[in-house]
Specification:
By secondary structure, the protein is an alpha/beta fold. The protein folds into 2 domains: 178 residues, D-Maltodextrin-Binding Protein, domain 2 (3-Layer(aba) Sandwich); 100 residues, 3-Layer(aba) Sandwich (D-Maltodextrin-Binding Protein, domain 2). It has 10 helices and 11 strands. α2 crosses α8 and α4 crosses α10. The longest helix is centred in the first third of the chain and has 18 residues. The protein is globular. The two termini are 23 Å apart.
């Protein structure tokens, strides 16, 4: 996804607190209500701290409500894979997930993807260094500190690590890394000199320049990742009723495509596939395994 578009290294205590809180919002309040009348809990993963983007995600939540014909609440858990866990345990009904989060969740049987958009041909992420750092390419990273975004982020973790892996570099051996928590925070860590390199979504790079978070004259793009083989997904909990699934698949794609801000933020291209097979996501799972992610850790 956009950088949203994204558990592996998340605090277990924080995750349990999150899912417990979501359960209180979703289950008890609606107990006994007919499924079609229950409030849908819709989750979006963290992206930037930009109020405009937060507003866009709230608008997407409104669309989910309109498409499903059900009252809807928008939640934004603190990390990408926290969204997966919340859908898995039934605390969240519907979610928009980044590519890797969707792939790994599908692999572990945690969610049912109902819509997946086609891939973009553009690089997924840029990795940046200051021009005066002497770092101009991935091979220069040895011994340096890198800011990734989140353990479940496609553009802020998986794709950059795959890029470095191709260059023969392994996290923790050839370079040190930290998770900044958001794309904004990763880029700010670079700007402030806290890290030597920051990786972020390609789509966000111009925004950081426009807003003055980075000066284009001060930074070098030291690496561009491969494109992501699929786009973002809409997923649902495995026992969500068929009527709601059908309504979302029938109405939501056109509504999202018609909104320029949502389409741009999520990188929507073309017509989504309904009820995709696992083979759609398998290339991403292979990338995850190539950088040492243990799929069983996501259960």
């Amino acid at each position: 996804m956009h950088a949203r578009a994204g558990i592996i290294a998340t605090s277990l205590v924080g995750l349990l607190a999150l899912t417990g809180a979501l359960a209180g919002c979703s289950g008890t309040a609606n107990a006994g209500a007919p499924e079609a009348k229950k409030e849908l809990v819709f989750a979006t993963p963290p992206g930037t701290d930009d109020p405009e983007e937060q507003s866009i995600m709230q608008h997407l939540s409104t669309m989910v409500g309109e498409a499903s014909g059900r009252p809807t609440k928008n939640l934004q858990p603190a990390d990408y894979l926290g969204v997966v866990e919340a859908v898995r345990n039934g605390s969240v009904d519907v979610a928009v997930l980044s590519q890797f989060s969707s792939a790994l969740a599908y692999k572990t049987g945690s969610v049912d993807p109902i819509l997946v958009w086609p891939a973009s041909p553009e690089p997924a992420a840029f990795c940046l260094a200051k021009k005066d750092s002497g770092i101009t390419k991935p091979a220069d990273l040895k011994g340096h500190q890198i800011a990734f975004v989140d353990p479940g982020s496609t553009t802020g973790d998986f794709m950059p690590k795959a890029l470095f892996k191709k260059a023969g570099l392994t996290d923790g051996t050839d370079y040190k890394s930290t998770f900044a928590g958001s794309h904004d925070s990763a880029v700010l860590a670079l700007a402030n000199g806290s890290v030597d390199v920051a990786c972020t979504a390609r789509q966000l790079y111009p925004t950081f320049i426009d807003k003055g978070i980075l000066k284009e004259s001060d930074v070098t793009i030291i690496g561009k990742t491969d494109p992501i083989p699929v786009g973002i997904s809409i997923v649902v909990r495995k026992d969500l009723d068929e009527a709601t699934r059908t309504a979302l698949k029938a109405k939501l794609p056109a509504m999202m495509a018609a909104d320029e801000k949502i389409a741009k933020t999520l990188g929507l291209k073309g017509t989504p596939t309904e009820d995709p097979e696992f083979s759609t996501y398998e290339p991403l799972v292979n990338v995850a395994e190539s950088i040492g992610v243990d799929i069983e850790d996501l259960r």
